[in-house]
Amino acid sequence: MLKGYISPYNATVVQKLLDQGAVLLGKTNLDEFAMGSGSTDGIFGPVRNPWSYSRQYKEKTPPKSSSENEESDWVITGGSSGGSAAAVSSFTCFVALGSDTGGSTRNPAAHCGVVGLKPTYGLISRHGLIPLVNSMDVPGILTRCVDDAAVVLGSLAGHDPKDATTIQDTFKPFELPNLIDVRKLCIGIPKEYHAPGLSSEILALWSKAADLFKDAGAKVIEVSLPHTRYSIVCYHVLCTAEVASNMARFDGLEYGHRADMNKSTESMYAATRREGFNDVVRGRILSGNYFLLKQNYENYFIKAQKVRRLIANDFVKVFGSGVDILLTPTTLSDAVPYMEFIKEDNRTRSAQDDILTQAANMAGLPAISIPTALSKRGLPVGLQFIGHSFQEKQLLTVAKWFEKQVKFPMIQLEEVKRHDCSVFQHQKSVSFL
Amino acid sequence: RAAPHPAPGEGGEGRAYGWLRASTLRSGNAVHPPFASPATAALASWVPVVGLEIHVQISSNSKLFSGSQVQFAAPPNSLVSFFDASLPGTLPVLNRRCVEAAVMTGLALNCSINKKSLFDRKHYFYADLPAGYQITQQRVPIAVNGSLSYSLCIDNKMSQMVTKTVRIKQIQLEQDSGKSLHDDARSQTLVDLNRAGVGLMEVVTEPDMCCGEEAAAAVRELQLILQTLGSSQAIMAEGQLRVDANVSVHHPGEPYGVRTEVKNINSVRFLAKAVDYEIQRQIEELENGGTILNETRSFDSKLGCTIPMRDKEGKQDYRFMPEPNLPPLILYDAKSLPVNMNHQQVVNIDWIRERLPDLPSVKRAKLVELYGILPEHSFTLLNEDGLAEYFENVIKQTQMKPKKVIGWILNDLLSYLKQHALTVKDSPVSSFLLADLLNLLERREISSSAAKQVLEELWKGEGKTPLKIVKEKKLELIQDQKELEQICQSVIDRQEDEVIMMVLGRNQKVLNKLIGLVQRATRGRSNPVLVKQILEKKLSE
Fold first, then answer.
1. What GO terms are given for molecular function (chain A) (predicted)?
2. C-beta separation of B185 from B198 below 8 A
3. CB-CB under 8 Å, A128 with B133
């Protein structure tokens, strides 16, 4: 739909980075209109996880058959901001921007072994972010370490008059302390995040992480977010409804692709939208319009909004009872091979993969995925921290401490020859597992 | 068609419709359409019900949600921001001035202002709606439950005015759409987005009106109110005020009938015509056993009728959804105003209320009280842009009493302006000049007929003062008593018949004729009162 479209203006987040001297290296690939959890449904083709070509993965995962080359074994990045995660992961850049509506920044961050930060809704301007779900979207930040994420956050956060949903309070950029006293912390482990399909590997990792905090003197308790299991269904109603609305502007009239159909305005619209949108997008538009019909509005949209409130209240209760940070897995498993991923359709995949990340968007809370360890297959696994609204400083402080503890290994790409290999020598290859 | 006689005793409700040739209302009479047979005459009373949806363009520098300029008749697509063009990633930012305009208008219409109101998206696909939805206020609008009072003349006589009230259901803020022009010759549609996103207030009335005249009078009063507030210039010809009429008819005591919506009404006059036509059409249709469809009809001003609009298959489901990019609109009053709030972010209802200007009804009452003019005069003064100021300026500069000045304003000045299609602003006769003239009259230096002659000269706008014209045309009143007596005598001498009649019966009419003759003889330079005295004296001799 936006083939050949060049935006005549910069998004606020882009402009802010440029104003701070950032160098734009390029634009990255993603699922079309950010709909997807694999970055496989873009018009430019699927994104490949750089770890597919890492020594760690190749050592642990021999090719399926000797006749096939490695090409068929490559794994997905996760999505929808897979291109950005891959860029950071493969040393193409230090920082990449993504978006996060249901986990689209944290999911690929976990699969690609990088830091993925979802800020609190309303902290960073959405002006220039093509909307998916206006009430849940945030710009996402992907970096190699938590300190970098804090730096980027510092230059992006703050009120934007062009975005009426940003808060008015002045944002004070912060530096993260190197040492913190974990004993003062209370870490919550929400039991509902032991979701069906969670790999035993990740479950074990999650448990180890909890122990890490406990051993350092933090209070680690099990908590309950009882409405977690409704979040996927709720998300799908609200997301498709907003999508149907947000996509209504794409008619080929003012910009973008326009079909070669002149019979009538309506037929031009119909042809343009059929040609310009992929199946995923069209499917969501149809569902969304269904939920917004007068006779369905009360039962679906309003109901979903009420459930959303319940989900958000779960967090309010837990955070109000003294919990500082929640610790959860980010994904159900490590990255799957592309050939396997595409066996299921986009909707099914999204429903499965969003379960652990999606509630934070419902509640507008800040969340961050930290690369924790390599799986048995040699692929990255991340764990997620969820914090109080607008308490990014505390969230990132804890995340940085955790990052230091786990010492996630650097990706070893043959193609990437590093002249500063002395730096590598200091990296412990012993993984957290 | 001859107007039927209303059946005696059939008062009907106050809203019954008087069958008419011209658009006037007779209240209290039941209707008998001329073609109804005597047998069905008793069945035939109808109650028309009219409600209005009035879209008012807010007078502001920029649009409701974006910074592009608001301007009439600019080059196509020259006032379109990224947001207006619905470029992806753009977001709405609420224009404070538009909120203030809506609050002002709500207060002037006696509405309750909702301290919290919400924005919604109304979805439909059309070439002039770039985003595929309009941002409006469907759930909770900014103002509700008000009233609009207006006046009507009974039987076209200005001296009998009656005040009516129509309830205002709500006022909501919403975006205007762009304009699409259909070029059927080339099978193309041209889209101009200059108007897309301009702020509108939609004023929705309850169906309290019963005919075209009421609708027109209500809209006229609303226009005056808006212009007084400055919240809109409300010029229908420039599309700043657009009216859709909802019309239905029913028998007294029965539920309301199916209503139609009439669009494409471009002036207050056409509004009255369109509403009356539609009422007639519905009555005829129902009388002939037909049914009324719940449809939208367009008013054709050339043919003077309503025609069904291009078919929209079935009813539209607008799939309303809250606008997620705009938080609820919170307004404050003196009590609820938070102390540390940035004043640029706050709209204070009480602050606005204190600064409301005098509304037309108040202005009229003041004019009547201050100057002793008749109520209907005050209506005419306010109805014409700038006329009330003109009148007051003349008053300031003349010794003539307001009650006399008003005659010159309404009868002479106004009729001249109308004849030449001029506005008060463009009058070649300024208030200064007119006051000057009236002073001459007041000082009895000229007669009133002479004054009219001078006025005619002044219209030419050649820059001469009244005094100069009087001197040039030798229009001064004859001050010399002897000269006047001579002229009167000569008239008497010539008009023997009249004199005889006068001697016989002191006939006033004849006397006036004689006075008139003297006036003619003096070319208006005689004081009629004096002439009358002289003639009477002479005739009694």
1. ATP binding; glutaminyl-tRNA synthase (glutamine-hydrolyzing) activity
2. no
3. no
Q: Which residue of A has its CA nearest to B341?
A: A168
Q: How far apart are CA B214 and CA B385, in angstroms?
A: 21
Band (B532; pLDDT cuts 50, 70, 90): confident
Burial of A84-109, coded b for 16+ CB within 10 Å and e otherwise, reads: bbbbbbbebbbbbbbbbbbbbbbbbb
Residue whose tokens read 């300190």:
A147
CB B284 within 8 A of CB B317: no
- DSSP structure string for B313-338: SS------EE-TTS--EE-B-TTT--
Q: What is the pLDDT of residues B451-471, one digit of tens each?
A: 888 888 888 878 788 888 888
- CA A187 – CA B140 distance, rounded (Å): 42
Contact B130 A254 (CB under 8 A): yes
Q: Say which DSSP state A136 is in.
A: T
Label residue A364 left, alpha or beta by phi (over 0 means left) and psi (-120 to 50 means alpha).
left
Mean pLDDT across A51-68 = 78
| CA B477/CA A416 separation, integer angstroms | 112
Residue whose tokens read 């479950």: A203
- Coil, strand or helix: which one is B391? helix
Give the DSSP letter string of A49-65.
Answer: PGGGGBHHHHHHS--SS
- Crossing angle of the two packed helices A200-215 and A392-406, in degrees rounded to 10: 100
Span A167-189, pLDDT tens digits: 999 999 999 998 888 999 999 99
DSSP state at residue A377? T
Q: Which of residues 164-203 of B touch A (CB under 8 A)?
A: 187, 189, 191, 193
Cα–Cα distance list, B455 to A402, B313, B388, B392 (Å): 95, 62, 20, 19
For residue A329, the 8-state DSSP code is: E
Average pLDDT over residues B519-539: 77
Q: Which residues of B touch A131 (CB under 8 A)?
A: 88-89
Q: What is the ipTM of this complex?
A: 0.91
Q: How crowded is residue B530: how many other Cβ atoms within 10 Å of its Cβ?
A: 19
For residue A31, give the 3-state DSSP assignment: coil
Six-digit token string for A419? 């002249």
pLDDT band at residue A66, thresholds of 50, 70 and 90?
A: low
Average pLDDT over residues B309-319: 74
Strand partners, B117: B329
Q: What angle do CA A213, A215, A221 make, to 5 degrees?
A: 50
Determine whether A287 is an active site residue. Answer: no
- Contact residues, chain B, for A247 at CB < 8 Å: 132
Residues 293-332 of B with CB under 8 A from A: 317, 319-321, 324-327
φ and ψ of B160, to 5 deg: -115, 100
Q: Is A264 a catalytic residue?
A: no
Nearest CA-CA distance, residue B326 and chain A, Å: 6
Residues 345-384 of B with CB under 8 A from A: 345
Tokens of A94: 């230090």
Gap between the Cα atoms of B310 and B238, Å rounded? 24
**Token pair belonging to B224:** 């005056």
Closest CA to A379 of A371, A387, A369: A371
Instruction: Tell me whether strands B120-123 and B133-136 are parallel, antiparallel or unpaired.
Output: antiparallel
| Cβ-proximal residues to B499 (8 Å cutoff; 6+ apart), any chain | B492, B539
Q: How would you classify the pairing of strands A186-190 and A325-329? A: parallel
Average pLDDT over residues A418-424: 49
Q: Provide the shortest C-alpha distance from residue B30 to chain A (in Å).
A: 41
Q: Which amino acid is at A405?
A: Q
The arithmetic mean of pLDDT across residues A295-312, rounded, is 97
> Is B138 an interface residue toward A (CB < 8 Å)?
no
Q: Which residue of B66, B83, B90 is the best one to mutate when testing the A interface, meaning the one whose CB has the most A CBs within 10 A?
A: B90
Cis? peptide before A7, omega within 30° of 0: no
